[in-house]
Write a sequence for this structure.
């Protein structure tokens, strides 16, 4: 059991590393404590900056530095793996920096978008479905489990975040996936129509023959042969990229 | 695993390890925090590394000196990693990196005090019970003492004795601490219980002012640290693996190989001599 004074000394040093407010500690060497704050905070800044390069670039240097400073001072970082820690910045930004979120309405979405790239690049391998063989329309397709559809309010996947404005607000869909073999994380813009199709397949392996009639009513489609003509090249692209099996 | 000269496997220069044309370590060391629950490209690299080299683990987040409870869930993941990759040595730092339920991601100095000795020794014993083997604890570099009531060497010896842990003998840290706190590193080494040494680390550092060295692992090992290494291993009555740490400012692989060969040459000479002396 630590004595209260020992505990307090440890807490004060840790608090100094987070807040940069120099404490009164017993028996330290003059001028040396600052090295701990510098070393600790540089690890945190590096991790945040490398996870969110686009968000960092979107904000002014002052805004970004303040966000990082406040995050580390006010938030208690929970993850023992430093590369996972930056994920915690998203909730912190949302709950404590409303003025930044108002100034840049796409900031939170951008941070989630950037974090997805880190997450997909690093995530543990998932089991892939067995290679498919069979008829294009009659046999069920299965999705690469290392993918998802992101619904976005701003075109973050198509436009430099610094050039996005409030007038860009809309409904965008983007597939994010880790490409089998290369392990690269890729993004693909998709229409609401194809987003719906992919999402339906994500819920359960589905035959296109069964999905097309549902789409017909969902999207008020009339020219089914034309729809089928659009589906085939899209699916070939998904197949080539390893997104479906 | 009782000998050999290895190097820290870093993502920055990981690909150089595979063809072994320039750099040829006997083993590699990983920080488990960088590899646990990781898939994709880096998992493939880990598989390739494990095919070619024994893996040793050097943890960053155990925070054995923390007032906070041990993170048993994460330690469970480390245990699984040790078992999956057949890791012979898992080492950690005699420091703390979490306090008041907040991770700090670097190594803070523990007050050298009797109550801290009891607290840490108990935690080491619990960790050893959980893992089913001894923990190898590193003497860390530090830039200021905090609330010390005993010397550093008394603190280390007391923890080793009470917890029955093993020692990661970081020669560069001992050199750095000797310089920063004005003691003779050879005298420091002579006061340690060297029978507990299980592993050695060697590294470079950066002198940032007339009276302060920072343990950066970003420079080549300097001659006085090689000299201290030779002195230290001359005091050991058993062989242990030796690791070259290089985390930043990565040079050409040939330079790292030269450092590995120099470490190997010094250790071979010392341990050959010891062997003959025994005979």
């Amino acid at each position: 059991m630590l004595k209260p004074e020992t505990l307090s000394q440890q807490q004060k040093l840790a608090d100094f590393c987070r807040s940069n407010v120099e404490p009164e500690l017993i028996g330290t060497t003059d001028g040396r404590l600052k090295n701990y704050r510098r070393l600790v905070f540089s690890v945190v800044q590096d991790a945040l900056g490398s996870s969110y390069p686009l968000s960092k670039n979107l904000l002014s240097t002052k805004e970004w530095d303040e966000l990082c400073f406040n995050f580390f001072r006010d938030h208690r970082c929970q993850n023992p793996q430093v590369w996972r820690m930056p994920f915690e910045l998203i909730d912190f930004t949302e709950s404590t920096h409303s003025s930044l979120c108002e100034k840049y309405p796409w900031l939170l979405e951008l941070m989630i978008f950037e974090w997805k790239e880190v997450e997909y690049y690093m995530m543990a391998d998932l089991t892939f479905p067995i290679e498919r063989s069979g008829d294009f329309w009659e046999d069920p397709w299965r999705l690469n489990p290392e993918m998802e559809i992101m619904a976005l309010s701003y075109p973050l996947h198509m436009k430099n975040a610094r050039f996005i404005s409030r007038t860009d607000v809309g409904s965008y869909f983007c597939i994010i996936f880790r490409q089998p073999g290369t392990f690269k994380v890729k993004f693909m813009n998709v229409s609401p129509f194809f987003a719906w199709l992919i999402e339906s397949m994500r819920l359960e392996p589905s035959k296109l023959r069964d999905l097309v009639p549902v789409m017909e009513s969902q999207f008020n489609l009339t020219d089914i042969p034309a729809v089928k003509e659009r589906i085939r090249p899209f699916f070939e692209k998904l197949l080539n990229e390893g997104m479906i099996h | 695993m009782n000998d050999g000269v290895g190097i820290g496997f870093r993502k920055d220069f990981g690909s150089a390890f595979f063809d072994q044309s320039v750099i040829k370590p006997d083993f590699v060391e990983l920080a488990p925090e960088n590899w646990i629950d990781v898939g994709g490209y880096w998992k493939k690299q880990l598989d390739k590394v494990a095919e070619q080299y024994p893996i040793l683990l050097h943890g960053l987040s155990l925070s054995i000196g923390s007032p906070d409870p041990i993170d048993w869930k994460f330690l469970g993941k480390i245990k699984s990693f040790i078992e999956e990759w057949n890791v012979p040595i898992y080492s950690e730092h005699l420091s703390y990196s979490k306090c008041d339920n907040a991770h700090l991601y670097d190594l803070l100095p523990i007050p050298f005090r009797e109550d801290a000795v009891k607290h840490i020794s108990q935690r080491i014993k619990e960790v050893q019970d959980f893992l089913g083997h001894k923990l190898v604890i590193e003497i860390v570099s530090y830039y200021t003492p905090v609330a010390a009531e005993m010397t550093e060497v008394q603190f280390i010896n007391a923890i080793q004795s009470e917890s029955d842990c093993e020692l990661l003998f970081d020669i560069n840290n001992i050199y750095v601490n000797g310089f920063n706190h004005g003691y003779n590193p050879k005298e420091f080494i002579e006061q340690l219980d060297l029978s507990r040494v299980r592993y050695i680390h060697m590294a470079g550092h950066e002198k940032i002012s007339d009276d302060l060295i920072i343990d950066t692992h970003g420079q080549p090992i300097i001659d006085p640290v090689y000299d201290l290494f030779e002195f230290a291993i001359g005091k050991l009555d058993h062989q242990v693996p030796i690791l070259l740490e290089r985390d930043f400012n990565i040079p050409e692989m040939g330079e790292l190989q030269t450092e590995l060969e120099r470490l190997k040459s010094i250790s071979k000479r010392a341990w050959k001599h010891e062997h003959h002396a025994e005979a």
In short: The mean pLDDT of chain B is 95. Chain B has nine helices and twelve strands. The first strand of chain B starts at residue 5 and ends at 8.
